[in-house]
Amino acid sequence: MSESRLVKVVVDAMGGDHAPEAVLVGVDAALAADTNLQIILTGPADVVEAFAKSRDRCRAVTTTEVIGMDEHPAHAVRGKKDSSIVVGCRLVRDGEADAFFSAGSTGACMAAATLVMGRIKGVSRPAIATVIPTAGQPVVLLDVGANADCKPENLVQFGHMGAAYAQIVLGVSAPRVALLNIGEEPTKGSQLAQDAHALMAAQLPGFIGNVEGRDLSAGVADVIVTDGFTGNVALKLLEGLSKTLLGQVKDAMTSSAINKLAAAVLKSSLVNLKERLNPDAYGGAPLLGVAGICIIGHGSSGAVAVSSAMRVAAQAARGGLTDHIASALTPV
Amino acid sequence: MSESRLVKVVVDAMGGDHAPEAVLVGVDAALAADTNLQIILTGPADVVEAFAKSRDRCRAVTTTEVIGMDEHPAHAVRGKKDSSIVVGCRLVRDGEADAFFSAGSTGACMAAATLVMGRIKGVSRPAIATVIPTAGQPVVLLDVGANADCKPENLVQFGHMGAAYAQIVLGVSAPRVALLNIGEEPTKGSQLAQDAHALMAAQLPGFIGNVEGRDLSAGVADVIVTDGFTGNVALKLLEGLSKTLLGQVKDAMTSSAINKLAAAVLKSSLVNLKERLNPDAYGGAPLLGVAGICIIGHGSSGAVAVSSAMRVAAQAARGGLTDHIASALTPV
């Protein structure tokens, strides 16, 4: 089966707040979990060479530059052609790797992937997607920040791209695609939302209409489409609120000695819940619409998030995500 | 002190999914809690007359029409001039009441208040605000749905109006006002957000810059301003996620007999938490910018939400909210 196809993922060893340590531990876990995975590590010689040499299925490509989290993305990508991010994207473009992963600057990864790999034919704006855990089936939300201002036709493309991702990475055969809006009726919402609704209804297979903010965590759709401004606010709100609420539950549980005893009994159930809600399990945010697989990790990614991202990258590559998006966007 | 000033609040007896029962129980609670509160109930004779007659400080104004939740707001308001909503707004306009409350159709309340009471001089777009509970000081978020498409100057006005509300209803002497955006820097975000940031920085006292989605539940600002599309998505997401998460915590706690025992010990602490996070305590969403106090309750409002809304309406009236907004918007 597809699981057994050999896949090469190039990994930016210098990406993220906990790099390179967390990245390298994550790479080891990924290599152990998937015996048909090969890793190419980009980064400074002293970080990547000895590590790669002592592992099977791991190769180092040394680079001399690193793009910092605070650098201007496009300037940094144009100026630092020998950075771990730019070289990583180049390896995908040249067919030496099947997918690229970095937990570094989101802006720099987007700029490098778009400039170096290019866009899939027909895509006007690549978008960042994220997978949101719900009580049931997880949901693909996009765009979560690549495009603060969107046109209705961008949102239709986001729908196609998100559906392709849900099919290949989440295994949903016929994804239900919804538009994030502020009412259920087609005539509700901003001008953008109304126009996008009309276009999506006409052009997008699997379109089920509008959903509202409360539906994001309810599992009523497999893919939820919105502009990058609303999507980014929603994503950060979800992350922030989950953390705040679970923190408050924890505070309530440790507010007295007897509460602490009771909480100890519940610990494993609540740890399970926390695990299930942990976005790390879904491994990074794909940049959809570029001509190659590019997965961007949260800056705070730990080893688990890195290894999940490798799994997702391999799955996307084995499933032929890029070709699948290209054919979804080709008018029939 | 101001607590003792006599205030008249007109209440739509027919508003909300649980009307009139929940409304009437809430009115009784409000009358008991504030001995200087008078209530005027609008609604059908058989609902309001006997009730009002048997209470002190309660008067009935009978109406013959009711606006349903699904009616087209502006049509309904224009067509049903003897409805409980339209008559309620008229009583405020005519100075017979200090504030209006309904848990009925949000759209109809907005349309009636705007058409009947009119706008405060200088206000181009009234906005709906809501108070979001956080671990610390609650936050006023606006607009949460009155204006799906906004201009930068609308957002500046929302800032003034939200600050006035925070001062009078939440007792914050110098509210910190922030713009909801997708990055901290002034140059981040959509064109609307960038332009609004520049205007707010130049014109709005207490402006502290951008906040992100994760900050909505973090208490870093007293007032958070956004367009009505983003605000509505954010509000419904907050409501939905709080419910989902607390539901999942409950599920985890009742998943085994021993968990149930432990959960029983924790019950009071968790009920406290749930109460603290319950938006009902902040009583309805004010429509800010109309020339009179108008508080709109959630359709699902129970008696507690209704009585909180009476308290907030009385507080807004005693604090002179409408005049306060008018003077904040007058160029000096």
In short:
2 copies of one chain form a homodimer. Chain A is an alpha/beta fold. In chain A, about 45% of the residues lie in helices and about 15% in strands.
Summed up, the domain count of chain A is 2
Strand runs of chain A, count: 11
Main sheet: strands, sense, barrel of chain A:
11 strands, mixed
Rg from Cα of chain A: 20 Å
Low-confidence stretches of chain A: none
CATH homologous superfamily title of the largest domain in chain A: Isopropylmalate Dehydrogenase
Main structural class of chain A: alpha/beta
Q: What is the H/E string of chain A?
A: EHEHEHHEHEEHEHEEHHEEHH
Q: Classify the helix fraction of chain A into a percent range.
A: 40-55%
The CATH architecture name of the largest domain in chain A reads 3-Layer(aba) Sandwich
Number of helices of chain A: 11
Oligomer description: homodimer
The CATH topology of the largest domain in chain A comes to Isopropylmalate Dehydrogenase
**Overall 3D form of chain A:** globular
Average per-residue pLDDT of chain A, rounded, comes to: 92
The percent range for strand residues of chain A is: 15-25%
Q: Biggest interface pair, residues each?
A: A-B, 58 and 58 residues
CATH class type of the largest domain in chain A: Alpha Beta
Provide the spatial order of strands within the biggest beta sheet of chain A: 3-2-1-4-11-10-5-6-9-7-8
In whole angstroms, the N-to-C terminal distance of chain A is 29 Å
